[in-house]
Design brief:
With 415 residues, the protein is an alpha/beta fold. Helix content is 44%, strand content 20%. Strands 4-2-5-16-15-6-7-14-12-13 form a ten-stranded mixed sheet, with helices on both faces. The two termini are 24 Å apart. The structure holds NADP nicotinamide-adenine-dinucleotide phosphate and magnesium ion. NADP nicotinamide-adenine-dinucleotide phosphate binds at residues 80-83, 102, 292-293, 309, 312-317, 330-331, 376, 378.
Length: 415
Amino acid sequence: MSSAASDARIVAKTPLVELDGDEMTRIIWKMVKDQLIEPFVDIKLERYDLFLPVRDETNDAVTREAAEAIKRLGVGVKCATITPDAARVKEYSLKKAWKSPNGTIRAILDGTVFRKPIRVKNVPPFIRNWEKPITIGRHAYGDIYRDVEMLIPGAGTAELVFRPAGGGETQTLTINEFTGGGVVMGMYNLDASIRSFARACLTYALDEKIDIWFGAKDTISKIYHARFRDIFAEEVEARKADLDKAGITYQYLLIDDAVARAIRHEGGFLWACMNYDGDVMSDAVATGFGSLGLMTSVLVSPDGYYEYEAAHGTVQRHYYLHQKGEKTSTNSTATIFAWTGALAKRGELDGTPDLVDFAHKIEESVVETIESGTLTKDLAGIAEPRVEKPATTEGFISAIAERLTAKVSGQSVSG
Ligand code: NAP
Ligand code: MG
């Protein structure tokens, strides 16, 4: 911590919820906090450690408490976390394969996840006509993420049954008459959640002044997907005047048509996606724009709570190298932008423009560092010009810190 900076730290009014995580992103998390945040901002962090052993120890209560804290304080910033599978249960000797923390948090906060790529001049997108960012609005509730599944051992009948709570007629549909083994799945969504998804997308698009696309497969799923289409259309109709005034258009497309058009398009729109489509398309769009390390993510709840994170995972492969004492070159950009997104939102909600300005200064420092040719391995090969000697994980962050320190003290950094 430089003493000059610490004397003049920006004071934040309201605490921020901090959700720490796992593996390489946990390593990055601490460096970012120590070098880019705490020397410059006097902010109380209400910390929840979602480190997998802590989740195991607390029977995952820590994850639920973190989500409740975001409800209470309004804004959270989250590190990537492991979603344990069988291999992780063994690796960490877990009591069980705890659910995805993001799934748990989304179930508590509801809301929609918006993922937007960070653009830097020297990393051109793979899709050459993508001139503007494509933001993915992922409905973050239900469908396969809250499904029930059954292994069918052999011949028999699988049915879908609904029994109305207040009595009345039971509805039954045959899913399949199995003649041999197979699988079956039941999933659901809620009108209220679909509606708040549509509303969150409209709010986001109006804020950002970008068009909205919504893609689903209502030709095949004539009730389930059609329900999404219809509720979306109702919400669009309700805000028609606002959309017209902002010059924003809405279009419904079949999901496969949306994919084909998105690739040919110049970008600059919000692509509203159902939960699974959003999971897949956000990785496709992130990679298309350059790297997962350049994709930001924010969960916007209908009640006005915000949780910021990087779109990528814990970068396990790099962590294993790091553990062996090898040098890594992990891109911390999206993790840093999770912090800046959260700080800027905190400042906006608290009416403290200094904090918003400072968040933007960090972002500028990151972009300028990359554009000056100090960047990590994921970008080195796709940057123009190519970078022969990528920065290490530590080197990249300290170059940003140096630039930020100069910016805050009103000096400029060359090169
Ligand atoms: P990942 O952590 O996103 O990494 C996949 C690969 O993408 C990496 O091996 C690396 O490629 C590249 N990559 C991703 N982020 C990068 C960065 N910041 N800088 C440089 N390269 C980057 O996905 P995963 O390995 O499939 O998942 C690891 C763990 O993360 C899993 O346990 C999963 O459950 C969890 N996960 C968490 C979240 C979340 O918390 N939001 C999201 C997704 C996954 P190279 O190896 O080629 O360098
Ligand atoms: Mg994913």
